[in-house]
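Subject: Protein entry, chain in single-letter code together with its fold tokens

Area: Proteins and the way their chains fold up in space.

Attached in line: The record itself begins immediately under this heading.
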Amino acid sequence: MSPRSHRSEGSFLRGTLTTFRRRCGKPSCHCASGEPHESPALAYTEGGRTKTLTLAEAEVAEVAAGLARFETARAELESAADAGIAALRARRGR
């Protein structure tokens, strides 16, 4: 399947789905002595720098699907490139 055929299924996303864990700083909050607050985020690189985009819980499944589509397309492109190199080498007798 070409990368273009994936477009009808949704967007591509590059990066890593991660979870931020932090304490809010309020002394009366449960995070002061217990588990920190958790929020999902997408970490990605842009211009050589790591950026993060905090997500709503409702966006996690959509982001995970976009990341999976990107990895599938990347694997397909790598496979096609490997086949192209093999064909070129075969034509040259190497």
Observations:
- Strands lie at 16-22, 37-46, 49-54.
- The two ends are 29 Å apart (CA to CA).
- Residues 19 and 40 are 4 Å apart (CA to CA).
